[in-house]
Every structure is written in structure tokens, then in C-alpha cells.
Amino acid sequence: MSSTQLRGVLHGLPGVDQVGQDARAARLGTRSIKNEAKARAIDLAISMVDLTTLEGADTPGKVRAMCTKAVRTAPGAPTVAAVCVYPDLVKIAADELSGSGVGIASVATAFPAGRAPLAVKLEDTRQAVADGATEIDMVIDRGAFLAGNYGKVFEEIVAVKEACAGSVNGGEGAHLKVILETGELVTYDNVRRASWLAMLAGGDFIKTSTGKIQPAATAPVVALMLQAVRDFRAERGRMVGVKPAGGIRTTKDAIKQLVLVNEIAGPDWLDPHWFRIGASTLLNDLLMQRQKLATGVYSGPDYFTLD
């Protein structure tokens, strides 16, 4: 798709009513659910978590411990969807998670700034896939996007998608999650355009943020991205997932996300194949709330491993 065609499509999208978008997201955030539904929602949220550690001080030991936690969440509870680590730690995670069914996501492409030559980003991606990554979380070049250079952003996503091809997933290659870093996109119109650009370029998921920039996964932004994937499937016939990340720390936060999914995109997206929650501390709260529903009492925070 040429730059002119992209500009025509992206600037032909309807504008976002900011006041209306904020109001609808706030309204949906007040929904409450009964305990029986809450128990199902907690387990669903656990199964959607991308358990994440993205710190400069990450060690192989920390990653191994996180992988154990990802699989052995709690008796009767599901495993998380994936662990998410830096590319140099993918092999550690892949060895620990072999045969578990838990995915290995890696933030390749010069995360979190994305300021690197394309050749570096592609080599970063290929190496992560070769080491066992089943999912790649790439960051877009926000500077190029904000400068209106949509063609460059589109071409980079296409190239990274091609680099995701490999021997994982039974030969399917790694899935590509495209991080928009919505906190730097300034306007809701830009969030909608970036979402469509990422989907048109072949992204399997669109993701709100790196978790390094605030605001991150705000309810209006997640709602807008859910509208985008819903409309994209209706117009283009392809289903794309959504991953909010950054600031989702409590069970209440997670359930609000599930309400948004159900009410805006629809129940087809209430599945870890199509909706993920990127988080590092959320899992503990989900497990604590799960135990509270089962036993009637809270466990102390030290009952679960600290991340």
C-alpha cells in the first residue's frame, strides 16, 4: 500500500468525539458483576495475562522464577497466556516453559523507544524467534507516525511481520503485537489511525503501550482500540487482537477491561487468543481475589511470590 493510499484510508476514518468517548468508557467502568460471574472473570483474566518483566536488572533467575509462577498459578487456576521478556532472555524462558503451553513473548525492535535502524530491529526479531519466542511485541516509530510518514511505519511493520516467520508454532512463526505507545500519540484520532495502520500492515494484535510512558492503558483508549478491531473485521474480514498494558494492577482493573471487551468488540474477543493484559503485578491480586471468593478470607500479600 502506497503512502498516498495509506493517508487516504487513515484520514478518511471518522473523527473521534473525545467527550463522548470518555463518557462511554466511564459509564462502562461502573458496571458490577455478581460473585459467580466474578469467579469466571478472574480465571479468564488469569488466562489472558502476559506476565511481564522488562527491567534493566532482569536476571536469568528472575525469569526462571516468573516462568514457574506462570505455569503454577494456583490449584485449579489456569496458566497465564505468556511471559514477556527482553530478547536476550528468550532462550531462558523457552527452556523453562517447554511443553507448558505458555507462550514466550519478546519485546524486540529496540524496545521501548524503537529508535534503531530497521536492519537492527529485524535482526533483533529474528534472533528472538530463533531462540523460541512465539510472540513478538514491536514498537512503532512514533516520531515517523507523528510526522505523517505513515509509509515508513507501515513498511517497518510489514518487514517485522516477515521476520517473525520461523519454526515456532508448528511452522506458523511468531505472532506480531504492534505497540502504539498511545501516551505519545497525543489525540484519539491518532490512536484510531495508528490502530488501523498496524492492522493494515498485518499486525496480529494492537497493543496500547510499553508500560514505560504514561498515560498507558486508559479505558477510553482501550475502548477506542476495541472499536477499531471490531470495525476492521467488519470491513476487512480479519480478526485482530488487543493488548492493553501499563497501569492494570488490580482485579477490579482487569474486570473493567473484560467489560469493555464484551460491550464494545463482543464476546468473540473474550479469549486469550484475541485479548491479552500486559502486567507484572496484576497476577498476585487476581490470585488473592480468587482465594477470597473460594475461602471467604484474604491471604496476606506474602502468600504469593513477589515479582
From TrEMBL:
The keyword Lyase applies. It is an enzyme of class 4 (lyase). It catalyses: 2-deoxy-D-ribose 5-phosphate = D-glyceraldehyde 3-phosphate + acetaldehyde. SUPFAM superfamilies: Aldolase. Pathway: Carbohydrate degradation; 2-deoxy-D-ribose 1-phosphate degradation; D-glyceraldehyde 3-phosphate and acetaldehyde from 2-deoxy-alpha-D-ribose 1-phosphate: step 2/2. It comes from the Bacteria. The keyword Lyase applies. InterPro entries: Aldolase_TIM, DeoC, DeoC/FbaB/LacD_aldolase. Belongs to the DeoC/FbaB aldolase family. DeoC type 2 subfamily. This is Deoxyribose-phosphate aldolase. It comes from Actinocorallia longicatena. The gene is deoC.
